[in-house]
Structure formats: structure tokens, C-alpha cells
């Protein structure tokens, strides 16, 4: 592109004397691109933040990788733990006993998932110690039959720390009166709040030795082991590499499989919201088309004079491409700046709006996530900026092509 094409294109963009309406439409186009990109970057950052927050809460209770056996019991778990932690990406491992049961307290009965753990080892693969709102995980002592329950379950059953609660095992014992379920009284030694209803309302923790006694498992048998990785996103790689390092036949799964539907739903929602908000940028691009079409109509005498002075159709096309591209560049730069600034300060902006209008968007009494999380990612911002720029560049092609086809004789006939 030669300097005179760039100069004339910039001059046409700044010119406002002949047609104020064209300048107004140009301003609307620029604002449309800016607002569209700001909204799109902010929404994508907030969706990333919610996904990260929910993932952290789920994986604070669940495991990055889980090693179990097809028949439900994993023998010689100590050896399996020693072999698993030799993998360079595995930070820690802990055994667990997983079973179903029913809790009974004050004439209230609830079905629960019972997880038998070793508190010292469980602290290395889960975040229960940080989730405790009453008591301590270390209060689970073998033989004392203590139990830690979720906040929602405690609220539903009216149970508090120190209360006695009955755990009913579905595995019955044979008596002269028939098969009866096994009952065992436990003492509530702690209450946790994971911030996820599935766990807070249906998961209880007991010591692994107590779980083995209650469900009649041998001391060297567990349901499986749970692994914590240095990078949870490398879990699929660990799942592929780990079988070669283990001496026992086992079934290995990771968090991307266990909660695949949940995270896929969040990802689909993010994409659909992004697509909807991208239409704002598309509308702004259509405004650029109308702006340039009107500019071409308004500048036909000027185009004719340039053609008679020797300007080629390609040069005329480049002049109007410069005009449309300049709108797109300014809109993209302002949109990236505004979107990034808002994305990093969305919590403060929401707090100000809540204070100004005396409303609360995420009540602590209703939502587990009471503050709007945000996680701006450079990949998303770059993608939005590139897509916006390409869209505005494409919008300049037709009007610029039309300008290059202006007939000088026809344009100057009535001048």
C-alpha cells in the first residue's frame, strides 16, 4: 500500500464537513465493536471463573485420578500406593473404602455415600481440612466410631457435633429372625461444607478401619486409592501411563471422565453465550458496510477525479479498505482494553451496582458462590480480537470493490 492511499483513506475517515450522518454511523460502528468485544471478553472471563471455581470445589472432595478394581476391592493397597507415587506427576495417594448406607437421627433417615479414609493421608489428596466448619478431620480415630458429615445433611437431620447418629449398612447379617441390616452408632465429630450440594447432602466420612469393620472387609482390602497430581489437566496422560507401573490389575479413571457431563455442559453454555454476544460484533460489522457504501456514494466525484489523475481501481479499493479497517482497529483496541479492564474488576463493579441499587445478585443464603469469579485468559482475548478484526476487514471488501468500479465519466456528468 502506497503512502497516498493511506493518506487519503485516513483523510476520508476524519472528514466531517460534507456528511455528518456518515460520521455518525462510523461512530456507531466503532462503539458497537467496542461494546460487543467488552461484553464478550467479560462474559467469557466470568464463565471461566465459574468453571474454575466449581472445578476447584468438586476436586476438593473428588480425586484427580482414582485407581480401583473391577470387583470392587483392591488388594494390597500399600504396594499400589508405593507404585503409584513413583509416577513423576503424582504428588500424593490415599486409600479409601466406598460404600452405601443410611443415617438415622431423631426419626429422620437419609441415604448416604460412606467413605472410609485415613485422615493423615486424605489431607494430602483432598481439601476436607479447609472445608471443616466444626470439628477436625483428625478426630476420626479408629475404634471410636466417629463420623464427619456435610453441612446440608447435618441441617436436614438436625445433627450437631457431639450428637449420636446411627449408620445402617445394607449388608445384612443372618439371625434366627431372618436377615437384618447391621446397625452401628457413630458420634458426629465434625461437619464440612464443600460448597457442592451433592457432597454436602450425601457424603459422610469415617475412619477406614471402622469402615472395614462395618462392611466386613479385610485389613489389606480397600475400594481403591485416590491420587493427587501436580497438574490436574494432565490426568488423562497419567491414566494412560499408570497401568504399566502397577503390578495389580486395576481400573483407572480421572476427573475428566467422572464429571464429564457437568463440565461439558458448562463449556457448551460458554460457547453459546459467546456466539450470542458475537452477534453484537457482527451487527457492528454490517454498520461498517453501510458506512462505506454511503461514503462511496458521497465520494464518487472524488473517486472520478482520482481515476482521471491516474489512480488504478486497486488503489481506490485500498483507500476505502483503509477507512473501514481503521474503524475496526480502533473498535478492537478499545474493546480489548475495556473488556480486559472490566474482566479484572467485575467483582468491584458488581459490588458497586449492588450498593447503588440496593440489590444482591448472588445471595449467600441461596448460592454457594456468593461472589462473581473471573478468570481472564489471554487465549480467549486474543481469539476475540482476531475474530473481530477479521470480521471488520471482510466487511470492507464489498464497498471497496464497488468504489473501484465507479465510472469517472458517469460520476462527473452532472458535476
A few lines on this structure:
This protein has 415 residues and is α+β, with helices and mostly antiparallel strands. It is built from 17 helices and 12 strands. It has a 6-stranded mixed barrel, surrounded by 4 helices. Strands 2-10 form a two-stranded antiparallel sheet.
- End-to-end C-alpha gap: 30 Å
Give the assembly state of these chains: single chain
Give the strand content: 15-25%
**Helix proportion:** 40-55%
- Quantity of strands, as a count: 12
**Count of DSSP-assigned helices:** 17
Largest sheet: 6 strands, mixed, barrel
Supply Rg: 33 Å
- H/E series, N to C? HHEEHEEHHEEHEEHEHEEHEHHHHHHHH
Inertia-based shape: elongated
SS-based structural class?
Answer: alpha+beta
List the helices and strands and how they pair.
Blueprint: H1 3-14, H2 20-59, E1 65-68, E2 74-75, H3 77-84, E3 90-105, E4 108-117, H4 119-125, H5 128-131, E5 132-135, E6 146-150, H6 151-157, E7 164-175, E8 178-192, H7 197-202, E9 203-207, H8 208-214, E10 221-222, E11 224-229, H9 235-241, E12 251-254, H10 255-258, H11 260-298, H12 300-308, H13 313-344, H14 346-357, H15 378-395, H16 397-404, H17 408-412
Parallel strand pairs: 4-9, 6-8
Antiparallel strand pairs: 1-11, 1-12, 2-10, 3-4, 3-7, 3-11, 5-8, 6-9, 7-8
Helix pairs in contact: 1-13, 2-11, 2-13, 2-15, 11-13, 11-15, 11-16, 13-15, 13-16
How would you characterize this protein structure?
- The chain has 415 residues and is of the alpha+beta class.
- Helix content is 54%, strand content 20%.
- A six-stranded mixed β-barrel has the order 3-4-9-6-8-7, surrounded by four helices. A two-stranded antiparallel ribbon has the order 2-10.
- A hairpin with a 2-residue loop joins strand 3 and strand 4.
- Helix 2 packs antiparallel against helix 11, helix 13 runs antiparallel to helix 15 and helix 13 packs antiparallel against helix 16.
- It starts with a helix and ends with a helix.
- The model has no long low-confidence stretch (mean pLDDT 83).
